[in-house]
Structure formats: structure tokens, C-alpha cells
């Protein structure tokens, strides 16, 4: 719809948090768009643009919806006034379940703290990016919300990755070298029993001993090698593909290795500063720093 077609007091079908819902336009918002009320739940939402409004509800349906909404809002208002905590039974249950969800998810944003424009009474659609105004398909889950690859990279580039707990694959990539060094140090310091002199091995046996399998390269080491050979900035997805083509590293079981690699590279840059092997060339692009 166009902005000139939107009328205050009219009811429209709008897309709210990835789902269609009936909203009644209350007034124009000083921040742009309109303040509206979800007719079905009585909750306030902000419509940022006319493009979010799909179609107007017919007059008969509008009158019926307004009457039902007003009746429901009056009932809820009376219930809140009678309640000691100023909440309805459904709001109290939702607040309790939201608190439990935060503790279980370890960082999920409560529904009442969601940005304006997102539904506060419905869970996120796991197949659609939860960023306001973005309807692209979700590629991964970041901080408890489904995100597309572009929005994920934007948030990580702005410094949001510091609050995220690394997953198993990321932890493995980032700590491969540290674990290897610790194991070597412990082995060296351990008290070794006296060894009995052994007979010299035949040449054939020495050759077989020298053919031991090489140590597996970590994803960060492989990414640094790919960037060094390429001599130009690359994206994490391009690095993952090049690592696989060159036989340096392949993802064991991760569904989004490029996102994990992206966060691991940023972590090395933040931890090592000028000593890091990577340097950020542009948003989403990294180059070899030597």
C-alpha cells in the first residue's frame, strides 16, 4: 500500500514478525510510520512503512473487529485493575515462561525488550530472519534469534559477536593450536622412565616410521594459508570453498562453517591486534596480514 492510502482508525492486514495479523491504525508515530494495535491480542505495535500493510479489512469486518477489540481491551483493563501485580493471567504466564526461556537459552532477548515493529506476542518464525524489515530466509541462529547471513555479518561487524557463546565447532577451530601446545608442554615436563637401549631399526622400518600421517590443519591456519596464496581479500564463504578445493580443511559436521570461521577470525583480530594473521579489508572481507 501507499502512505496516502493509510487512514487513522482503519484496520488492515499487516505482516508482523513474519506473520499476518489484523492491526488498527491509532495515530502517526513521531518516529515515522504509525502506532497501531493488534486487534487479536490488544498489544501495541509500530508499523514503520505502508509496505507492511497488505490490504484493508472490509467495513463490516472492521466494525466487528473494532467492537470485539474494544470489548476485549475493556475486559483486560478491568482484569489488570483487579490484579495485585497489574497483569492479566495470560500476561503473568507469558512473563513467567519468558523468564524461564531466558535462563534456558542463555542470552535470548525477552519478548518485552524486542525492538519496535516486531510482534511482542508471538515467537519468531525459525525460517525467516528476525531483523526488523528483513524478510530473507534464515541461515543460522544468533543470540537466540533466526538471522540471514547478511544480517548476521552486519551484527558481528558492529561488535555484537562479543556476547555470543561460541559453538563446539568454533571452539575447536580457535583452540586447536593452544591444545596442541599444552599437550606438547605436558609431555615434555612429565617424568620419563629410564629407557632400555634398543637395537637399531632396519632401514625399511625407519622409512615406514617417517611416513606417519601429517597433523591436521586447523580451520584458522587453513584460512590464513588460502588468503596468503590468493593475495586478495576474500569472504568467509569463499575461504571455506577454497580450503576444501585445496585439500587443506573441510567442515566435519557444521551446517554453517563460514559463519563460524567469520567469528573466529574476528576473535583472533581482537585478541592479537597487530600480531594477527588477518586484517579486515571491508565489511565481510578479510586479507592476509602476514
Explain this structure to me?
The protein is an alpha+beta fold and 290 residues long. The protein has two domains: 1-123, SH3 type barrels, CATH 2.30.30; 168-182 and 215-288, Orthogonal Bundle (Arc Repressor Mutant, subunit A). 40% of the residues lie in helices and 15% in strands. The protein is built from eight helices and nine strands. A five-stranded antiparallel beta sheet has the order 4-3-2-1-5, with helices on one face. It has a two-stranded antiparallel ribbon with strand order 6-7. Helix 3 packs parallel to helix 8 (257-272), helix 4 (168-189) crosses helix 8 (257-272) and helix 7 (236-245) packs across helix 8. The protein is elongated. Mean pLDDT is 75; it is low at 106-122 and 160-166.
The CATH architecture term of the largest domain is: Roll
What's the domain count? 2
The name of the CATH topology of the largest domain is SH3 type barrels
- The order of strands across the largest sheet is 4-3-2-1-5
CATH class of the largest domain: Mainly Beta
Number of strands: 9
Give the topology string: H per helix, E per strand: EEEEEHHEEHHHHHHEE
Q: Mean of the pLDDT scores? A: 75
Radius of gyration: 28 Å
Amino acid at each position: 500500500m501507499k502512505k496516502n492510502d493509510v487512514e487513522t482508525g482503519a484496520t488492515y492486514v499487516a505482516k508482523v514478525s513474519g506473520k499476518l495479523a489484523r492491526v488498527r491504525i491509532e495515530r502517526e508515530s513521531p518516529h515515522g510510520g504509525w502506532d497501531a494495535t493488534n486487534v487479536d491480542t490488544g498489544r501495541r505495535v509500530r508499523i514503520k512503512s505502508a509496505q507492511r500493510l497488505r490490504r484493508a479489512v472490509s467495513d463490516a469486518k472492521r466494525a466487528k473487529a473494532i467492537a470485539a477489540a474494544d470489548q476485549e481491551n475493556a475486559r483486560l483493563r478491568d482484569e489488570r485493575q483487579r490484579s495485585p501485580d497489574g497483569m492479566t493471567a495470560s500476561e503473568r504466564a507469558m512473563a513467567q515462561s519468558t523468564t524461564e526461556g531466558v535462563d534456558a537459552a542463555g542470552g535470548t532477548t525477552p519478548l518485552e525488550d524486542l525492538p519496535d515493529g516486531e510482534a511482542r506476542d508471538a515467537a519468531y518464525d525459525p525460517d525467516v530472519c528476525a531483523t526488523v524489515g528483513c524478510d530473507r530466509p534464515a541461515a543460522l541462529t544468533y543470540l537466540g534469534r533466526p538471522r540471514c547471513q547478511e544480517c548476521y555479518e552486519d551484527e558481528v561487524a558492529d561488535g555484537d559477536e562479543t556476547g555470543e557463546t561460541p559453538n563446539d565447532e568454533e571452539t575447536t577451530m580457535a583452540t586447536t593450536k593452544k591444545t596442541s601446545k599444552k599437550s606438547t608442554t605436558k609431555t615434555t615436563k612429565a617424568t620419563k622412565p629410564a629407557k632400555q637401549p634398543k637395537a637399531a631399526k632396519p632401514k625399511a622400518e625407519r622409512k615406514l616410521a617417517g611416513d606417519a600421517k601429517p597433523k591436521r590443519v586447523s580451520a584458522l591456519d587453513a584460512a590464513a594459508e588460502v588468503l596468503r596464496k590468493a593475495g586478495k581479500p576474500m569472504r568467509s564463504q569463499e575461504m571455506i570453498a577454497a580450503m576444501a578445493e585445496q585439500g587443506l580443511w573441510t567442515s566435519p559436521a557444521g551446517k554453517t562453517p563460514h559463519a563460524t570461521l567469520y567469528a573466529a577470525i574476528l576473535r583472533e583480530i581482537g585478541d592479537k591486534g597487530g600480531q594477527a594473521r588477518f586484517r579486515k579489508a571491508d565489511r565481510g572481507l578479510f586479507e592476509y596480514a602476514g
